[in-house]
Amino acid sequence: MGDKRVVHIVDDEETIQRSVGFMLRATGFSVETYPSGTAFVAVATQAKIGCVILDMQMPGLGGLEVQVALADIGVDMPVVVLTGNGDVALAVRAMRAGAVDFLAKPVEKAMLLEALHRGFARIDRADGRAAEEAEAQGRVEALSPRERDVLEGLAQGRANKAIAYDLGISSRTVEVCRASLVRKLGVQTLAQTLRIAFAAGMGRPPRA
Q1: Distance CA 203, CA 154 (A)
Q2: Residue 207, pLDDT above cutoff 80
Q3: Residues 109-135 pLDDT 10s
Q4: Cα–Cα distance between 41 and 60 in angstroms, integer?
Q5: Cα(173)–Cα(29) distance, rounded to whole angstroms?
Q6: In a designed cystine with 155, which of 105, 138, 191, 197 is the match (CB 3.0 to 4.6 A)?
Q7: Is the full-model pTM beyond 0.90?
C-alpha cells in the first residue's frame, strides 16, 4: 500500500535489520534497510520521508556522523537512535543533534513504537516543535529549583559526581533528585528526560 509509514533502518548488523524490520512490517510500516551510514546518506535526499532508526556504532560513518551529514545535506527526518553501549554523554550528543529518542539494544517493541509515533507526529504537525516546547516548559516548571539544577547538569552531559561537585551537594542527593524529577516529568528513560530538557531550552552552551 502506498500510504504506509516509511521507516529507514540504518544498521550494519543484519540480524537487527531482519528482526526490527520484520516487527515493523508486521505492525504495518513500510521498511527500507541500509547496511551502513554511508549507504543511507548517499541516497537520503531521494529517500521517502519517514523516520530513521539509526545505529550509533557502525564502521565508517557512525550514528552521530550520520546525523551531522543529514543536517548538512538538508535532510530533516526524525531519528531514533539505537545503541548497544550508550552512556550519558553519547545520549546527550545524539539528542542535541535532534534525535527523538535514544534506545538500548535489544530494543523493546513498545518503546520503539512509541518513539516512532513521536517521530511521525513531528512530521505531521507543522507546529509540533512549538507545542513540544510549551509542554516541556510546563513540566520543568513543576520541578523544584534543585531538581532543575540537576536536570541542567544532565542536559550538559555531566555524570552524577560532577553534578554533585558543581552544586556542592552529595552524589546521593543528586540520585534522589534524579529519581524525583524523573517521577515528576513522567518519563522512564534518560533519552525521554533529555528530550524534555532540550525542548525546554536546557543544556545549551553558555554564550561567549
Answers
A1: 8
A2: no
A3: 999 999 999 999 888 875 556 777 888
A4: 12
A5: 44
A6: 197
A7: no
Burial group, residue 30, by CB count within 10 angstroms (0-12, 13-18, 19+): middle
**Who's near 107: CB < 8 A, 6+ residues apart?**
20, 82
Amino acid letter, residue 124: D
What pLDDT score does 126 carry?
A: 54
Length in residues, the chain? 208
Question: Do 101 and 81 form a contact (C-beta atoms < 8 A)?
Answer: yes
Q: What share of the chain is helix, strand, coil (3-state, %, to 5)?
A: 55, 10, 30
Q: Please state, in angstroms and as integers, the Cα–Cα distance from residue 206 to each residue in 45, 48, 159, following that order.
A: 34, 37, 19
For the segment 67-99, what is each residue's pLDDT rounded down to a tens digit? Answer: 999 999 989 899 999 987 766 778 788 888 889
CA distance 8 to 51: 6
Q: 3 is written with which cell numbers?
A: 500510504
DSSP letter at 107?
A: P
**Torsional class of 49: left (φ above 0), alpha (ψ -120 to 50), beta (otherwise):** beta
Say if CB 71 and CB 52 are below 8 A apart: no
With beta carbons less than 8 A apart as the criterion, state whether 56 and 62 touch.
yes
Q: Quote the pLDDT of residue 164.
A: 96
Q: Which amino acid is at 2?
A: G
> Residue 127 CB: number of other CB atoms within 10 A?
8
Ramachandran area for residue 168 (φ above 0: left; ψ -120 to 50: alpha; else beta): left
